[in-house]
């Protein structure tokens, strides 16, 4: 029988379920030395699910393969890609001095600066394993691009005028995106979304420069971003096996940043439709294809980055 006069914070010797002990908040305050900080949020942790990263890697691979099969292995795809490449001639005189300078120093500068920033952030956060994974996947992405472009993939001659050699995927874009990826992986949850956006801006500008200076076609640049995305997912899977997920304080949500990619996606989609309807070329056709290529690169970059931010959101 219950003793009604008993205080609510005492338990019945018989184990009554109706009698309540100290509240979780009171226990948390006691555990924190009376400071009132809810430290229990840091003590209950779970493992991040690596399946989501494997899914991201498979999706990146599938899109890469489809991109290659259409834009490299078909006549229509080559014609659309080449038309965008030819369209860069319209603004080449005005932007070449700027883009040429970027492309000249981009590989070394992005690698050195990216590595230094990655080291600094990793030391501040004391995440040595994350640093090793970040540098490893960045190097793997760069090596993969070189292997694919020069050792595995080929560009058949389908009668489309233009540079006949294989340039798929872009090495310059891969280096820029891989440097941004390394910094993204070691960044804290509070700053990860901002690092992802600014790193994407850097990688996208590098890719746009290769098209504007007629070093690469649009599909080359997007393929490079997908290679880096694949290895980023591999890195996330590795980290998810060994890193716990804490109940972290609220930080910027990537969902509010999706609007960035929407206008680029709409413009590039419209330009692609117009170009597919008439791949014969001409001044207006080349210009439309060029604009479509530029916006497709921007849309792809931001979509990949924002998806990555959501995937990595649970990791501390």
Structure description:
With 316 residues, this protein is an all-alpha fold. Helices cover 69% and strands 1% of the residues. It has helices spanning 24-31, 40-43, 51-71, 75-87, 92-125, 128-152, 171-186, 189-212, 218-242, 261-277, 283-312, and strands at 46-47, 244-245. A two-stranded antiparallel sheet has the order 1-2. Helix 4 packs across helix 11 (283-312), helix 5 (92-125) runs antiparallel to helix 6 (128-152) and helix 8 packs antiparallel against helix 9. The longest helix is centred in the middle third of the chain and has 34 residues, at 92-125. The protein is globular, with a radius of gyration of 26 Å. The two termini are 49 Å apart. 42% of the residues are buried.
Count the DSSP helices.
11
What is the number of domains? Answer: 2
Strand content: under 5%
Give the CA-based shape.
globular
* Averaged pLDDT: 78
Please sum up the structure shown.
This protein is 69% helix and 1% strand.
Q: What structural keywords apply?
A:
2 domains, two-stranded antiparallel sheet, about 325 residues, single chain, 11 helices, mainly alpha
How would you summarize the topology of this molecule?
Elements (H helix, E strand, L loop, with lengths): L23 H8 L8 H4 L2 E2 L3 H21 L3 H13 L4 H34 L2 H25 L18 H16 L2 H24 L5 H25 L1 E2 L15 H17 L5 H30 L4
Antiparallel strand pairs: 1-2
Helix pairs in contact: 3-9, 4-11, 5-6, 5-7, 5-8, 6-7, 6-9, 7-8, 7-9, 8-9, 8-11, 9-11, 10-11
């Amino acid at each position: 029988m219950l003793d009604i006069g008993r205080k609510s914070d005492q338990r019945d010797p018989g184990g009554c379920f109706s009698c309540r002990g100290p509240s979780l908040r009171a226990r948390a305050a006691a555990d924190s030395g009376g400071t009132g900080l809810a430290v229990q949020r840091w003590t209950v942790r779970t493992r991040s699910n690596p399946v989501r990263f494997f899914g991201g890697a498979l999706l990146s691979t599938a899109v890469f393969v489809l991109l290659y099969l259409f834009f490299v292995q078909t006549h229509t795809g080559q014609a659309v890609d080449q038309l965008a490449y030819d369209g860069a001639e319209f603004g080449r005189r005005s932007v070449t001095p700027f883009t040429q300078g970027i492309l000249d120093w981009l590989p070394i500068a992005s690698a050195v600066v990216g590595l230094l920033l990655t080291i600094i952030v990793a030391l501040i956060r004391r995440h040595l394993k994350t640093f090793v994974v970040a540098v490893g996947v960045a190097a793997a992405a760069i090596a993969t691009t070189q292997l694919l472009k020069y050792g595995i993939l080929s560009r058949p001659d389908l009668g489309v005028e233009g540079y006949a050699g294989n340039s798929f995927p872009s090495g310059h874009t891969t280096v820029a995106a891989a440097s941004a990826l390394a910094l993204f992986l070691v960044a804290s949850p509070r700053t990860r979304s901002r690092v992802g956006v600014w790193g994407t801006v850097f990688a996208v500008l590098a890719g746009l420069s290769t098209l504007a200076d007629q070093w690469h076609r649009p599909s080359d640049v997007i393929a490079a971003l997908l290679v880096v995305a694949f290895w980023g997912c591999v890195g996330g899977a590795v980290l998810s096996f060994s890193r716990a997920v804490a109940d972290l304080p609220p930080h910027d949500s990537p969902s509010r940043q999706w609007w960035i990619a929407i206008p680029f996606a709409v413009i590039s989609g419209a330009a692609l439709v117009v170009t597919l309807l008439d791949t014969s070329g001409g001044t207006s056709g080349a210009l439309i294809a060029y604009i479509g290529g530029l916006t497709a690169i921007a849309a792809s970059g931001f979509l990949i980055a924002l998806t990555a931010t959501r995937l990595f959101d649970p990791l501390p």
